[in-house]
Sequence to fold (251 residues):
Amino acid sequence: MSGNPSAWNPGRLDPVKAAEFAAYTREHDLPVFLHAGYLINLSCRSGPNTLIHARSVKLLQANIGRARALGCEQVVFHPGSRRGVSAGESQAALLDGIGSMDAGGVVLLLENGAGSGDTACSRFEELGQVLDAAAARGIAAPLGVCLDTAHLWGAGYDLTSAAAARRLVDDFDRIVGIGRLRLIHLNDSPLERGSRRDRHEHLGCGQISPAALTALARHPRLREVPLIMETPGASSPSDGQRMRDLRELAG
Fold:
């Protein structure tokens, strides 16, 4: 996040600090991802949602501009909610929104949802359909996928064992394509599998099998995919311990 994630106006970006940040990441060859605001909903534009769709397009474009200023090559965003419209209408709204972007080389990553309500793109099939349809339309903005393990768990995907995690990777490759996976949010969840809710927990402190998380972190076909944790801030475990836990998982 580069500003208030729950506001339509994320605030002014300090150009001097942004340039310093971009220079630092270039110097240390760090992959940096910007997460767009949570209010974005490109998956519905009917009735009263027309204005929200338009504001979402504007906010995503603003986040792309912020990414450029910060030297971030990829922007993660939530596709949003269908809010009762058909899958076809929802996909058309999403593709029109993405198609209107001036990405300037910045890659837009669709993040899978946990499946609550009418959330779009909580299943591999829908992610694959959106990317295929975008390619068929000739949409200029480069696209990819960010997978969140807590969202996968909430949506009912099996992460109860190392073998289940390996099957999940195979399924994703068959339905979407490993080459389209650009980032993993490696999070545990305090909720039961299939809860359809988005809640994060520190690795090893939730309901997802530690063996499954380890299998994902060490999967040979995912070794080049960056891993990012998004766990609640707390004094224990410390941020340092969280990073050590992640490095241990990744081997």
